[in-house]
Structures are given as structure tokens and as C-alpha cells.
Amino acid sequence: MKGKPVTIALLVAVLMIWGGVIYRVVDATGGEEYTLPVAPRIAPMDTTQTAMDSFALVADYRDPFLGRFHREHRRRTTTAPVVKRQQPIKPAPKKEEPKPAPKINWAFLKYGGIFHNKKTGKITGMVRVHNKDFMVAEGDSVMQVAIKAIHRDSLVVEYKGEEKGIPKG
């Protein structure tokens, strides 16, 4: 019966802790109701104006973008007489603008990565054209796409006369 006093002491401690927890729960749920404080009423302000304030902007600061001081833009007036034309003005002939070349959607082309053969020193790239995978070298042409250069992070190609760098990914 060596540990009996320790057990009794621990039992008393546990009962005190649980008693405190139960007391707090009962105290929080029961008892008087809590009412919110109401702010006191404030008298309305006097809205009559005593004097009009006037302000003037001073714009003699340096423009942060142009680096020079701001100046007022003044309208220039001409003193030359206005001459009215007797003949109606004919509209200028319309010039046909050349149609821009259609933009190429490069989404059909993906660059997968690079292979380097240590024995032969040959560099080969992995390219996906229209969801078909190809292994290509510089100078090769696959489905009208000419491979110009192969780099570790990008691929330089030419398609329909337009050259573009395709990033790895």
C-alpha cells in the first residue's frame, strides 16, 4: 500500500479540476441575461454655414514623368481670315489596305525536351506535332515544321514562313 496516498492526492486533484470545469459551464449557461449596452444619443449638429471656404490649386510642381515643370496650355488663335470654298469637297478615294497574314496558332506544337548522346555528340529533341511525337535534330522537317535550333529550354522552329521559339513544357 505504498502508493495509496499518492493515488488519493491525484484523485482529489482530478475532482477539483473537473469541479472547476463543470462550475464554469453551469455559470456560463445559467444566470442573468446579458444585455448589450446602448450608445447614448448625440445632439444633432448645427448645419448652418458661417463662411464659405475657397481653395486655389497651385500647380507649379515638377511633372514626375516628363521631368519638367507644369505649364498651362493656352489656346492659340489665328488672325488669318477664313475662306469658304465654292466647290464641294470630294472624298478621298479609299485605298485598299493589304490584308494581314493570318496569325498562326502555335498550340499544335509542343517541345518535350532534349536528348544528348555522349558517344556521338548528337543532340536530339522530342517534339509533339498535332498530338504525334517525333524525335528530331537540327535541320529536320516534320509535318511542314522546320527545326532551326534545339536548346535545353526552347526549340526554334519555322512554320509557313514564320519563325518562333517554343518553350519547353
How would the blueprint of this fold be written?
Elements: H1 4-29, E1 109-116, E2 123-129, E3 132-136, E4 141-142, E5 145-150, E6 154-159, E7 162-167
Antiparallel strand pairs: 1-2, 2-3, 4-5, 5-6, 6-7
Provide an overview of this structure:
- By secondary structure, the protein is an alpha+beta fold.
- The chain has a domain of 62 residues: SH3 type barrels (Roll).
- The protein is built from one helix and seven strands, in the order H-E-E-E-E-E-E-E.
- It has a four-stranded antiparallel β-sheet, with no helix packed on it. Strands 1-2-3 form a three-stranded antiparallel β-sheet, with no helix packed on it.
- A hairpin with a 3-residue loop joins strand 5 and strand 6.
- The protein starts with a helix and ends with a strand.
- Order of strands side by side in the largest beta sheet? 4-5-6-7
The assigned CATH architecture of the domain at 106-167 is Roll
Beginning-to-end CA distance, first to last residue: 75 Å
Largest beta-sheet characterization: 4 strands, antiparallel
Give the helices and strands as they follow along the chain.
HEEEEEEE
Question: Any idea what the radius of gyration is?
Answer: 43 Å
Number of E-type strands? 7
Give the strand content.
15-25%
Large-scale geometry: flat
